[in-house]
Specification:
The complex is a heterodimer of chains A (about 190) and B (about 575). Chain A has about 190 residues and is of the alpha+beta class. Chain A is built from five helices and ten strands. In chain A, strand 7 and strand 8 form a beta hairpin. The longest helix of chain A has 13 residues. Chain A is elongated, with a radius of gyration of 25 Å. The N and C termini of chain A lie far apart (about 50 Å). With about 575 residues, chain B is an alpha/beta fold. Chain B has three domains: about 180 residues, Thiamin diphosphate (ThDP)-binding fold, Pyr/PP domains (Rossmann fold); about 170 residues, Rossmann fold; about 170 residues, Thiamin diphosphate (ThDP)-binding fold, Pyr/PP domains (Rossmann fold). Helix content of chain B is about 40%, strand content about 15%. In chain B, the strands form four sheets. Chain B has a six-stranded parallel beta sheet with strand order 3-2-4-5-7-6, sandwiched between helices. In chain B, strands 11-10-9-12-13-14 form a six-stranded parallel beta sheet, with helices on both faces. In chain B, helix 1 packs parallel to helix 6 and helix 3 packs across helix 18. Chain B is globular and about 75 Å long. Classes of the chains: A alpha+beta (about 190), B alpha/beta (about 575). The interface between A and B is large, with 38 and 42 residues.
Chain lengths: ~190, ~575
C-alpha cells in the first residue's frame, strides 16, 4: 500500500467512509392512480405491490367522467423509500396514466361505511339516532331490531362513530376503501 | 380484405419487418403455423423445446438489436417459455412472445392444454395481452412490438385464443402513429432534463477522481461513440458491468474492464476511491455493489438511465438523469465543449490516472498457467487469439461465464451475450444459435459449462437441421463449478451434489447428431482443435475441453461484502484491499 499510495504523492487519508443508505419510515401511504380500464389492470397493480411484500390495506376503484378511464385510491403501509420505488414502477405500467402519492400533499379523503347496529330498545334507538345526527350520518334501513346507518367522512370520523355505537352491538359492517383527491391551490407538483 | 386472424398475425409480423421466428407448434397455435406455411415469407426455426426457442429469440435480439419473436402453443408450450421470458425481462431484451390459447369460450374451464399464461407472466413481462376480439388483434400485435423495443426494452407476451385465429376480419393493420396514440400511458422520456445535465457537467468539470460505470443500457442505446468521446475528452476511466461489455472497447487504455463481484482489482479500487461516479445505463445490481454502504463511499453519483424506476433504487444518487443514454451523453459532451472541456483539477486527475495504472500493474487479470493441465482461462485466451477478438461470444451461467467476461476482450457492443440478470444456466447454446442466425457474417462461439450445456443441449439437433455453424466450447470440469467454488470457500469444501463427472461423451454426442466433435485434454491440443473448428462452416461444432477441475474464478468479492474484502488472484485476501486507503 505504501508504494502505491505513498510514491504517487497522494496523501493517504482517514479510515473508509460509509455511504449513507436511505431508510424510510414505515407509515400508511395514500396513492392515487388514474388508469385505463383495461383487462387485468387491477391485477397488475396488485401483483406489483404484493411483489414488494406489502399488503393493500384499502382500495377503491371507480370510473371517472372520461370513458374508459378509472380512478383508483390505494392505501399501503410501507417504507417511504420502497413506496417511492413502487410509485415509480406503477408509473411504468402501460395502463397507468397518472400516479401520485398524496400522503404528504394536502388532500381531501373520504370513505363510506354501512353499519348495522342493534337497536332493540327505545333507549338504543334514541341514542343511535342522536349519534347519527351529530355525525351527519343517515339511517338507510330500519327493522324492529336494527338501524342501518350510512356514514361518510374521514377515517377518523368513521372510527369515532363506530366506537360510539359499538356498545349497542354492531350486527354487521361494510366499509369502502378511501377515495382521495388533491386540494386545489396547494403546492403544485407534477404527476 | 377479409382474412383469418392467423393471417393477420403473419401480416402484422411482416409489417414489423420480422424475417425470422423461433418456435414450436401445437394445437392452439396451429392456425398461425398454417398461415406461416401458406405465406412462406417468414423463416421459422423449429426448436426442440420452447425454452430453446425463447433463448434463441433472445440471442437473436441481443446480437442484432432487432425485436426477437418466439412462438408456442398453449399450456405446456407457454409454460416452457417462462424461463426465457423472465430472462428477457431481467436483461431488458426486446422479444415478442406469441402463445396460442384455448378458444375463448373454454378459457377458465381447465380445458386441455389451458394455462393462464397472462397471469403467470404478469410479473415478468414489460406488458402482456390476452386478445379478446379479432378487431383488436393487429393493434395489440403492433403495440407489443412498439412496447418491446422502445424505452427500456423488454419482453411482451401476446396470448391469442384459437377461435380468434380462425375468425375472419377485414380490420386493417394500424399505422405507427395510431399505435403510439393508442398508448397514452406509455411515453418513454428520451431527452434528459437540461438542468440535471448541466449539474452533471459541473460535477464532471470539478471531479478529481472520476470513473464511468457503464451497463447494458449503453449497449441497448448504441452509445459506444459517445462513451469513447466523453472518456477521451475528460480523461475518465471506464469500467463496464457484465451486461455493459463492449459498450466501451476493452483494449482502450482508459478501460478498467469489469467491476463488481468478479471485477478487476483496479476497477474495484477505482470505484471505491473515486470522487465522481458516472453510472451510464446501469442499475447498481448487488453483484456490482456488494455491500451498499461501502460502494463508492466518497463519490458523488450521476446516474443516466432510461428507466426512472432504476434511479435511486439501491443507492441514492446526486444527479438523476432520465433519458436515452446516447442522447444524454451527446448533450453532456456538447455542454462540456461549450465549457471548453476544461477540467478544474488537471494535476489531481493526472495523479488519479497514474494511481489506477499502478493498481493495474500490481494486480492485473491473471491466473496460474500450466503446461500439463488445461486451465479454463487458457482456453478462452486461445479462442480470443484464434478469432482475433472479433467473434460474438455467448455463455451459460457459472464459472465459464465469468472467465469469458474476464479473458476475452470485447471491442464492440452486442459482442458478449449472456444471461446477466436472471442467471439462466442453459442460456448460452440456444442464444448462440439465435445470434449466429442474426449475424451470419460473424463467428459465434458459445463458451459453455458442462452443467449449463446439458440444460439445453437438445438444441444441438436444431443447429444441425438449419446448418448453423456455431462453435460450442465446453469448459468441462465435471462440476457445477461455481457452486463448488462457493462450497470450497464458504462451506468448508462440503461438495454437496455438484459432481457432474458422469456425463455423456460430448464428441460422440456431436457425431450422433451430425455435428462435429473434438476433445482436448492437454494444453497443446487446445489451439489445434479451435483452428479445426474454425474450418467448419456447414454445421455446429462441439469442442470438449477437459480443464482443471477445481480452478476458481478470481478475484472475487464475496456476496454482500465490501470491495475491501476482495479475494485476489492468488486466492489470498489483499492486505491492501483490507486496509484500503481512500486517496485524494
Amino acid at each position: 500500500m505504501a508504494d502505491t499510495v505513498g510514491t504517487r504523492g497522494l496523501e493517504a487519508i482517514k479510515a473508509p467512509l460509509f455511504r449513507e443508505v436511505k431508510k424510510g419510515e414505515m407509515r400508511k401511504h395514500i396513492i392515487n392512480l388514474t388508469v385505463r380500464n383495461e383487462l387485468g389492470v387491477l391485477a397488475r397493480i396488485a401483483t406489483l405491490i404484493a411483489g414488494k411484500g406489502y399488503n393493500i390495506e384499502g382500495l377503491s376503484v371507480g370510473e371517472t367522467h372520461e370513458k374508459g378511464i378509472s380512478r383508483m385510491t390505494l392505501e399501503v403501509i410501507g417504507d417511504d423509500v420502497v413506496i417511492d420505488q413502487v410509485v415509480k414502477q406503477l408509473r411504468k405500467l402501460i395502463d397507468t396514466l397518472k400516479v401520485k402519492d398524496l400522503t404528504d400533499t394536502p388532500h381531501v379523503e373520504r370513505e363510506l361505511a354501512l353499519v348495522k347496529v342493534h337497536t332493540a330498545t327505545p333507549r338504543a334507538r334514541d341514542e343511535v339516532l342522536r349519534l347519527v345526527e351529530i355525525f351527519r350520518a343517515k339511517v338507510v334501513d330500519v327493522s324492529s331490531e336494527t338501524y342501518t346507518v350510512e356514514i361518510t367522512g374521514t377515517e377518523d370520523k368513521i372510527k369515532a362513530f363506530i366506537e360510539l355505537v359499538r356498545p349497542f352491538g354492531i350486527k354487521e359492517m361494510a366499509r369502502t376503501g378511501k377515495i382521495a383527491m388533491k386540494r386545489e391551490g396547494s403546492i403544485q407538483e407534477e404527476e | 380484405m377479409l382474412r383469418k386472424g392467423a393471417d393477420i398475425v403473419i401480416e402484422t409480423l411482416k409489417e414489423e419487418g420480422v424475417e425470422l421466428v423461433f418456435g414450436h407448434p401445437g394445437g392452439a397455435i396451429m392456425e398461425v403455423y398454417d398461415a406461416l406455411y401458406r405465406d412462406g415469407y417468414i423463416k421459422h426455426i423449429l426448436a426442440r423445446h420452447e425454452q430453446g426457442a425463447g433463448h434463441m429469440a433472445e440471442g437473436y435480439a441481443k446480437a442484432t438489436g432487432k425485436v426477437g419473436v418466439a412462438m408456442s402453443t398453449s399450456g405446456p408450450g407457454a409454460t416452457n417459455l417462462v424461463t426465457a421470458i423472465a430472462d428477457a425481462y431481467m436483461d431488458s431484451v426486446p422479444v415478442v412472445f406469441i402463445t396460442g390459447q384455448v378458444p375463448t369460450h373454454l378459457i377458465g374451464n381447465d380445458a386441455f392444454q389451458e394455462v393462464d399464461i397472462v397471469g403467470i407472466t404478469r410479473a415478468i413481462t414489460k406488458h402482456n395481452f390476452l386478445v379478446k376480439k379479432i378487431e383488436e388483434l393487429p393493434l395489440i400485435l403492433r403495440q407489443a412490438f412498439y412496447i418491446a423495443r422502445t424505452g427500456r426494452p423488454g419482453p411482451v407476451l401476446v396470448d391469442i385464443p384459437k377461435d380468434i385465429t380462425q375468425k375472419l376480419s377485414d380490420v386493417p393493420v394500424p399505422t405507427f402513429d395510431e399505435v403510439k396514440e393508442s398508448l397514452p400511458g406509455y411515453r418513454p422520456h428520451l431527452e434528459g432534463n437540461l438542468q440535471q445535465i448541466k449539474r452533471a457537467v459541473r460535477f464532471i468539470l470539478e471531479a478529481k477522481r472520476p470513473v464511468m460505470y457503464v451497463g447494458g443500457g449503453a449497449v441497448q442505446a448504441e452509445a459506444q461513440k459517445e462513451l469513447v468521446e466523453l472518456a477521451e475528452l475528460m480523461n475518465i476511466p471506464v469500467t463496464t458491468t457484465n451486461m455493459g461489455k463492449g459498450a466501451f472497447p476493452e483494449l482502450h487504455p482508459l478501460s478498467l474492464h469489469m467491476l463488481g463481484m468478479h471485477g478487476t482489482y483496479y476497477a474495484n479500487m477505482a470505484v471505491y476511491n473515486c470522487d465522481l461516479l458516472i453510472a451510464v445505463g446501469a442499475r447498481f445490481d448487488d453483484r456490482v455493489t456488494g455491500k451498499v454502504e461501502e460502494f463508492a463511499p466518497q463519490a458523488k453519483i450521476v446516474h443516466i438511465d432510461i428507466d426512472p424506476a432504476s434511479i435511486s433504487k439501491n443507492i441514492v444518487v446526486d444527479v438523476p438523469i432520465v433519458g436515452d443514454v446516447r442522447i444524454v451523453l451527446r448533450k453532456i459532451i456538447e455542454e462540456l465543449k461549450r465549457e471548453v472541456a476544461k477540467t478544474l483539477y488537471p494535476e489531481e486527475k493526472q495523479k488519479w490516472i497514474e494511481q489506477i495504472e499502478a493498481w493495474r500493474k500490481k494486480h492485473p487479470l491473471t491466473y496460474a498457467r500450466s503446461n500439463s493441465i488445461i486451465k479454463p482461462q487458457y482456453v478462452i485466451e486461445q479462442i480470443y487469439e484464434a478469432t482475433k477478438g472479433e467473434a460474438i461470444i455467448t455463455t451459460g451461467v457459472g464459472q465459464h461465464q465469468m472467465w469469458s467476461a474476464m479473458f476475452y476482450k470485447y471491442s464492440f457492443p452486442r459482442q458478449f451475450i449472456n444471461s446477466g440478470g436472471l442467471g439462466t444456466m442453459g442460456f448460452g447454446f440456444p442464444a448462440g444459435i439465435g445470434a449466429k442466425l442474426g449475424r451470419p457474417e460473424r463467428e459465434v462461439f458459445v463458451i459453455d459449462g458442462d452443467g449449463s450445456f446439458m440444460m439445453t443441449m437438445q438444441e444441438l439437433i436444431t443447429a444441425v437441421q438449419y446448418r448453423v455453424p456455431v462453435k460450442v466450447a465446453i469448459i468441462n470440469n465435471g462440476y457445477l463449478g461455481m457452486v463448488r467454488q462457493w462450497q470450497e470457500l464458504f462451506y468448508e469444501r462440503r461438495y454437496s451434489e455438484v459432481d457432474l463427472s458422469v456425463q455423456p461423451d460430448f464428441v460422440k454426442l456431436a457425431e450422433a447428431c451430425g455435428a462435429a466433435g473434438f476433445r482436448a485434454e492437454k494444453p497443446s491440443e487446445v489451439r489445434e482443435i479451435i483452428e479445426e473448428a474454425l474450418k467448419i462452416q456447414d454445421r455446429p461444432v462441439i469442442m470438449d475441453f477437459h480443464v482443471d477441475r477445481e480452478e476458481n474464478v478470481l478475484p472475487m468479492v464475496p456476496a454482500g461484502k465490501s470491495y475491501r474484502d476482495m479475494i485476489l488472484e492468488d486466492g489470498k485476501k489483499s492486505v491492501e484491499a483490507e486496509t484500503m486507503y481512500l486517496v485524494g
